[in-house]
Design a protein that fits this description.
The protein is mostly helical and 180 residues long. It has seven helices and no strands. It has one domain: Up-down Bundle (Four Helix Bundle (Hemerythrin (Met), subunit A)), CATH 1.20.120.330. 36% of the residues are buried.
Amino acid sequence: MCQPTKDRQRIEKLPIREYKLIEDVLSLGKLTEDWSRTWSELADDRLALAEKHLATARMMQELACGKDEGALRSAMSRAYYSIFCAARAVMSLHQKGDANDHMALPGQIDKTTRLQPEEDREFVYSALAKFRGARNNADYSVHCPSTIQADVEDATETACRVLRICHRWVREIQTERGTK
């Protein structure tokens, strides 16, 4: 994962509208198949990154021993980014275009009825919204909530469930497209 190909680096940041335009104009054929495979690989890479963020969140949580505010703040941030990267992997693969807008991503997940069951969509949507706010507070507020230890525990447990859901969704999309 540390050495992505140049194609993957270029395609990773390609907005969906530009991909659709290229696809329409060129009637891509084989290139479309190659891009689908590349988006599939990027989804796997992003899920692996989400796993690393979750592992770091857990490590910071342990390091904090419930007392180190800085470590708890870092754990909250990493837990949120685990959730974000997993959801981004799903939506970028689904759209074949990068989904990196922190404010738009929850709504994109919520409106994508292809992602089932609905309860899982609602869970991921809620997790993104809830923990984005908690991450912003952890990273930027000078006031640390007295509940931060419990909030971090909730965030890491939620991130674990979001990862399971997003792994399943990615596998379903990959299977449907024949890229896995």
